[in-house]
């Protein structure tokens, strides 16, 4: 935790969401949580770490990352045509605190209060190299799982719910299932669903049997995959896509939908087994559509929190951290 | 089936096992089934199809494949320093009958007698282009699964067992589980186990967490993977490898063993559920070792057929087909 909180302009903060493959920077109104201006970059942590590695003699790691961040803040200033006061701090979450990030922070442990979260936060004081306060947020670990970024998303998502308790599904490349009880995150699990979908569809023997020129459609093929995942061994069901293609010419778009249903259905079979009382679903609009359809096939009710168009759940989560730091 | 059987030298036949990534040619003594001489090539069907595709104007597909086969027979003659009588036929099984093979043959259907197998066989008469009889063997299909090559392996393997009935596990890149009842193959399932192991270990986020410089070891890590596969959701258990690596520095060789155990254990969970009375295990010595260890962890008894060092199960299976053709 931060020991000495500096005094600064409380009306705004900068929200930096630095993930594995993307970089997002937003100017946030701290009272409402609304995004005033936003820019994004393809220089995710992975790509950025590579460029630091090849230039590592020229500057220290943290400085190298802060220099990039400084330039992005300038770009944000240009795009909104106004100078941002130096007292406006930047809050950084996601993979920026990982071993390939600006500075590796140890994971914080469960349970995590969603109202007064105690995360490990690294405070970088303003200096010549970077002119404002920066706060780097750690991830969370259980005894056998880890996350970086989703803990902040959860804070933001839950902040928009009257009752925070329930079972959260954050659909993504590495989906997360999170249990919240008495306003505390108490357990979570990560699933390699999205990554395996991409890998199998593009690199396995099934690549010849699935059409990846467009996104999966949550129709019959998708639903059949979700259902089969409840009965069939996954390693066999995967090969059946190839067999159906050879024997019955099932159609490569349909096979792609079935593969998507099979993997999402496998992930969600855990939810079926655990019968949570209240399921809260989140994800980008594309993924959320598949997960919603799969949950329906499986007879599981869920809610989808209403987040306004000018709100972002990472920024909403960072707002809680910002309020903790400034109060 | 073949309508007119030509008369030829019955003491020997040539056994060609043309798989996706390998080509094997053997001279077999038809009475004993023993291999007299063998050569192998890395030009599997996949690679060979590519080279035909880039030369397709120069010759017809079947001729192109037969020309290669002819050269390999010459190479076999050179390596055993004796001319092979033109009356000695060649029997070809594996992917050579697939859509990328020398000629695509429709799959034969279940059930398949292991004593008097009725497979689709394409007979190529001797001609100027290829001087001996060639017999191309089809694969087998069920309503939702396919194989090419393993049906011939099964014939050979079962020919060395006093009782052929039981549940066969043919461990491989795409493992097969086969049910044999009243001396007939009645059902089978394919599992993508081996291919997924290679894909996940080399191309996924886990590539950084597993050491692939040597083969998995069937020790503690492997056994833990087999056990966890019976309890855990596979998509989550996979990610736990990354988490354990980050949190507990479990060791990359151990993580590789665990990954192997997890995938083989997932495949074999189907065997646990179906409780077959008699399990017959086959596979190359490396794979067989893992499967044997996994079956032991799961408390499933199995037998391992005794095949002599100078015998090959594909050649033993082709011998049954050869005897059918010549009798």
How would the blueprint of this fold be written?
Two copies of one chain form a homodimer.
Chain A (H helix, E strand, L loop, with lengths): L11 E7 L4 E7 L5 E7 L3 H10 L6 H20 L9 E5 L13 E2 L2 E2 L7 E4 L9 E4 L2 E2 L4 E2 L2 H10 L6 E5 L4 E7 L2 E8 L1 H11 L16 H12 L2 H15 L3 H23 L4 E4 L2 H13 L15 H14 L1
Parallel strand pairs in A: 1-4, 4-8, 5-9, 11-14
Antiparallel strand pairs in A: 1-2, 2-3, 6-13, 7-8, 9-10, 11-12, 12-13
Helix pairs in contact in A: 3-9, 4-7, 5-7, 5-8, 6-7, 7-8
Number of helices of chain A: 9
| CATH homology superfamily name of the largest domain in chain A | 2-keto-3-deoxy-galactonokinase, substrate binding domain
Q: In terms of quaternary structure, what is this?
A: homodimer
Number of strands of chain A: 14
Please name the two chains that share the biggest interface, counting residues whose Cβ lies under 8 Å from a Cβ on the partner chain. A-B, 37 and 37 residues
SS content category of chain A: alpha/beta
What portion of residues of chain A is helical? 25-40%
> What is the string of helix and strand elements of chain A?
EEEHHEEEEEEEHEEEHHHHEHH
Whole-number average pLDDT of chain A? Answer: 93
Shape of chain A: globular
CATH class of the largest domain in chain A: Alpha Beta
Q: What is the CATH-assigned architecture of the largest domain in chain A?
A: 2-Layer Sandwich
Across the major sheet of chain A, the strand order is 3-2-1-4-8-7
Poorly predicted runs of chain A are 1-5
InterPro entries (chains A, B): DGOK, DGOK_C, DGOK_N
GO molecular function (chains A, B): 2-dehydro-3-deoxygalactonokinase activity
Keywords (chains A, B): Kinase, Transferase
GO biological process, one term (chains A, B): D-galactonate catabolic process
